[in-house]
Amino acid sequence: MQTETKLSLDKIAIKKIGNYSNKPTIIFLHDSLGCIELWRDFPQQLSDFAQCNVLVYDRQGYGKSSPFSYSKRDNYYVELEADILNELLNYWQIEKAILFGHSDGGSIALITAAKYPTKILGIITEGAHVFVEDITLKGINEAKVQFETTDLKTKLEKYHGEKTEAMFWAWASTWTTDEFKSWNIENFLPMIECNSLIIQGEEDEFGSLMQVESIVKNSRGNSEKLIIPNIKHNPHKETPELILEKSSEFINQFTNEKF
Q: What residue spans of the chain are helical by DSSP H?
């Protein structure tokens, strides 16, 4: 595991949506290059659609949160973020949450549900990874070329500011090392007791459908898959109406409980 992060929880940027009494809180976990702002209006739409509270946050090193509290990522950085989320749930006084995680955020959601089952009602993931694939490395290497040769860096600086360089390479460099090829979190899946909705675009450029099959097959809770034809790595942006509908249906199973 990483050494102590020395992270100040009050330096994590958050956005709260909704004021529904006795309703669960949906927590959004962004992808490897994401942040609160890059979710656009989707969290607000899901809050309205499902009539639930929402909390969106920037992980350390992203958006308006504090810079990384460690100098180099290792194979355990996703688990570290799950542990930090557990601390944040205590800090925010959220006892029961539904996690909506995209890409890296989806992997964080899976580990959080496995390690802290009493705090997680259910999870929704989009393009989550549980092991490293050649297609993933191909997509990341293409992103590295774009970062160095196009205006991608400038676009990201709009959201991450002076943290952009460190944020991008923390992802791109870590995933493409020989050491990281052994990264695998499938051992956490049998520990997931809650229900889950596992979403992936059939044309996802960062992962194959084997990721979905592993999650659904190995999770202990009831795990439903949603494979969407002609959709890539960002289903909530590419087909928002469908994701709102299916996510709300999933969330509805929890809305009659008391919180």
A: 42-50, 77-92, 104-115, 134-149, 152-160, 164-175, 210-218, 235-238, 240-252
- 140-164 confidence digits (pLDDT tens): 999 999 999 999 999 999 999 999 9
Distance between CA atoms of 180 and 182, rounded to whole angstroms?
Answer: 5
| 224-248 CB burial, b ≥16 within 10 A, e <16 | eebebeebbbbbbbebbeebbebbb
Q: Is it the case that residue 2 has pLDDT exceeding 70?
A: no
What is the spatial distance between Cα 121 and Cα 242, in angstroms, rounded to a whole number?
A: 22
CB atoms within 10 A of CB 108: 29
The pairing of strands 120-126 and 53-57 is unpaired
Q: Are the CB atoms for 233 and 142 separated by under 8 Å?
A: no
Dihedral, 150, 152, 155, 160 alpha carbons, nearest 10: -140
